Design the sequence.
């Protein structure tokens, strides 16, 4: 195929474009006449890049960072809440003004009796069937130690910042706790010179006692305070349990009454286990 030779007009047009281009290059080099155009182009390029990044990548980065921050804050709040609850429990059991014990020397006797290296082991509730707690007579909750321990806590008393909650009846990592109000639970309590075995009623927050006026002629009155006697080998002596209520005369001799417990297992998620050695 024959090559078409450029015409005179094409040559003139090419030469004209070359001259105009050279002229523009000369003007730009010497007078910077196109500097503003170049700057505007660069600015537009940077702006468009920034906008594209803001509309595409940044939202995902922000969501990811926000989720990490939220997770960190949640973990930090849980840690602070646990430390706060632990301080409440610690202050509660060792305070000289506490009503958890009937006298200020009881905590010293407790620590000496059990030969404890530490006051308690902080635990948290893992499962609590509240429906069964309110409808049935079996009152159990399941807890787990915050700090792993090889100790077996079966038989150890459990309390919150208001007093005794119950005792560990099974320990396999997750500890099963029988509450004081469980219908199968029983432990000795006293008030002044009166003693009885308080039994769980199967009703939330209530245990019951009965006695014979032939043995203890002095009457029990509403609001009379009762404490653990320490005779059962589980709970330490002089721990405040609750106050008498609903005093009923069964017959001429026998009297029955309820004790409203000082503790409510629904109010706190963190509990403490005393070592029972």
Sequence:
């Amino acid at each position: 195929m024959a090559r078409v030779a450029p015409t005179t007009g094409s040559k003139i047009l090419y030469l004209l474009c070359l001259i105009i281009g050279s002229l523009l290059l000369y003007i730009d080099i010497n007078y910077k006449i196109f500097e503003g155009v170049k700057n505007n182009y660069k600015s537009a390029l940077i702006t468009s890049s920034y906008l594209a990044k803001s509309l595409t990548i940044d939202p995902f980065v922000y969501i990811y960072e926000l989720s990490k921050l939220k997770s960190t804050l949640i973990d930090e709040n849980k840690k602070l809440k646990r430390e706060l609850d632990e301080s409440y429990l610690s202050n509660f059991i060792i305070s000289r003004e506490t009503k958890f014990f009937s006298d200020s020397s009881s905590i010293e006797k407790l620590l000496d009796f059990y030969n404890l290296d530490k006051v308690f082991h902080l635990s948290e509730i893992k499962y609590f069937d509240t429906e069964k707690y309110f409808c049935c007579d079996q009152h159990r909750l399941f807890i787990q130690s915050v700090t792993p321990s090889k100790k077996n806590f079966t038989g150890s008393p459990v309390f919150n910042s208001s007093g005794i909650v119950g005792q560990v009846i099974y320990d396999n990592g997750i500890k099963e706790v029988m509450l004081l109000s469980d219908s199968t639970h029983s432990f000795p309590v006293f008030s002044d010179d009166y003693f009885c075995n308080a039994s769980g009623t199967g009703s939330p927050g209530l245990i019951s006692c009965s006695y014979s006026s032939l043995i203890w002629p002095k009457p029990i009155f509403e609001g009379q305070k009762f404490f653990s006697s320490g005779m059962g080998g589980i709970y330490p002596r002089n721990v405040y349990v609750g106050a008498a209520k609903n005093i009923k005369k069964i017959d001429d001799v026998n009297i029955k009454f309820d004790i409203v417990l000082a503790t409510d297992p629904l109010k706190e998620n963190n509990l403490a286990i005393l070592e029972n050695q």
Notes: Residues 99-277 form one domain.
